[in-house]
Amino acid sequence: MMPHLNSHYIKHLNLKLVCLAVAVVLLSGCKSVGPDYQRPPLPLPAQYSEAGSQAQVAVSSTWWMLYQDPILNDLIDKALQNNTDLKLAVARIEEADAVMQEVGAALLPQVDLNAAASHSRVTEAGSNSITSANPQSNYKVQLETSFELDFWGKLRRAKESSIAQALSTRYAKDTIALSLSGLVTSNYLVLRSLDSQIAVSQDNLKNRDTSLALTQRRLKGGIASALDVQQATVASANLSAQLTELNRLRALSVNQLAVLTGVLDLNIARTNITSTLIPPTPPAGLPSSLLEARPDIRQAEELMIAANANIGVAKAALYPTISLTANLGGESLVLGDILKSAARIWTGGLSLNLPIFDSGKRNARVDQASAKQKQALASYEGAIQNAFREVNDALVNLRQYTELEAALLRSQEAAAIALEISTNRYQSGYSAYLDVLDTQRVYNDAALAFIQSRQARLVATVALFKALGGGWQAGAEGLKNANGM
Question: What is the Cα–Cα distance from 226 to 203, expressed in whole angstroms?
Answer without folding.
Answer: 25
